[in-house]
């Protein structure tokens, strides 16, 4: 059984920023448990992060973030935590590897997984010229010919956001899911072109630059940029629920907005929470959570000293 002051579950941008902050206190035994995948691994170029005007990939941020945290003494373990519980005052975590971990405090940065259909050619373009977040990357499609691949009302609602960025927007309802008459009317009035058709292939250049899509009826629709909005993203809330956190209707986790605490000795950061899903927000929350975890651990140490007197 491995015991730590704090275990961070998830090695994405939120978890890594928290690890760096925790490591710099130099008085806690900290472990990051990460399965090696997540939203940030899909993004080839973040353009909205301070200090990277030419963009930076999620993989580069993760690699440098891990190195930065390891320099402060933070430990890393490749594993997937599949179950959580409490044993006395400590938190017990169980990995898919069969390993068990014990901690005084836990930070959950498990995030979410976007629902991305297996359309040939789509994944190599993600985070390069095809995007998922209008707040992060709406700027990238400004006045560009753009195809939105989506499903039903999730895609229609995204189209109403993106039409503010470009007048050349085609929404292809890949799954041909139903859309309300009101949304249809709103899209038409806003100038969104609409098509119900299954996409056979996303066409691209070698560098992942989208050039268009091929539908199953053999039609090619040219494009300079792309977005996806299929809905049904999976929030990884289960561990938080097992540890007593309150889960909102949309499966995100409710927290104290000041400290990011979700349950006794449990904090969260990143896309798991109820907020805008942005890399910079996730990193900020990681730092905030780490500061409050440090405070909690310091208080535990004081109480232990008093009990020993």
Automatic annotation (TrEMBL):
Cofactor: FAD
Name this protein carries in UniProt: NAD(P)/FAD-dependent oxidoreductase
Pfam family name, one: Pyr_redox_2
Domain of life of the organism encoding this protein: Bacteria
Coiled-coil zones: none
Lineage start: Bacteria, Bacillati, Bacillota, Bacilli, Bacillales
Listed Gene3D superfamilies: FAD/NAD(P)-binding domain (3.50.50.60)
Oligomeric form and interacting partners: Homodimer.
Domain FAD/NAD(P)-binding: 4-286
Keywords: Flavoprotein, Oxidoreductase
């Amino acid at each position: 059984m491995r015991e730590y002051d704090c275990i961070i579950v998830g090695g994405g941008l939120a978890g890594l920023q928290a690890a760096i902050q925790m490591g710099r206190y130099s008085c806690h035994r900290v472990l990051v448990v990460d399965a090696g995948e997540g939203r940030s691994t899909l993004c080839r170029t973040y353009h909205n992060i301070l200090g990277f005007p030419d963009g930076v990939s999620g993989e580069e941020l993760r690699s440098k973030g891990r190195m930065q945290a390891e320099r402060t003494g933070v430990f890393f373990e490749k594993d997937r935590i599949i179950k959580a519980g409490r044993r006395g005052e400590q938190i017990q975590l169980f990995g898919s590897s069969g390993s068990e971990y014990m901690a005084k405090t836990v930070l959950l940065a498990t995030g979410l997984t976007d629902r991305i259909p297996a359309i040939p050619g789509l994944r190599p373009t993600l985070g390069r010229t095809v995007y998922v977040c209008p707040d992060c990357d709406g700027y990238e499609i400004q006045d560009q010919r753009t195809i939105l691949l989506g499903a039903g009302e999730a895609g229609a609602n995204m189209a109403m956001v993106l039409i503010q960025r470009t007048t050349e927007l085609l929404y292809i309802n890949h799954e041909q899911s139903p859309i309300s008459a009101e949304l249809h009317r709103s899209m038409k009035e806003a100038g969104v072109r609409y098509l119900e058709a299954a996409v056979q292939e996303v066409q691209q250049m070698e560098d992942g630059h989208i050039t268009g899509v091929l539908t199953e009826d053999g039609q090619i629709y040219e494009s300079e940029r792309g977005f996806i909005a299929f809905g049904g993203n999976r929030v990884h809330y289960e561990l938080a629920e097992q540890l007593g956190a309150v889960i909102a209707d949309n499966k995100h986790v409710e927290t104290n907005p000041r400290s990011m605490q979700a349950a006794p000795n449990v904090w969260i950061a990143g896309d798991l929470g109820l907020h805008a899903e942005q890399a910079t927000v996730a990193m900020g929350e990681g730092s905030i959570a780490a500061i409050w975890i440090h405070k909690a651990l310091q208080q535990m140490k004081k109480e232990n000293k008093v009990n020993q007197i």
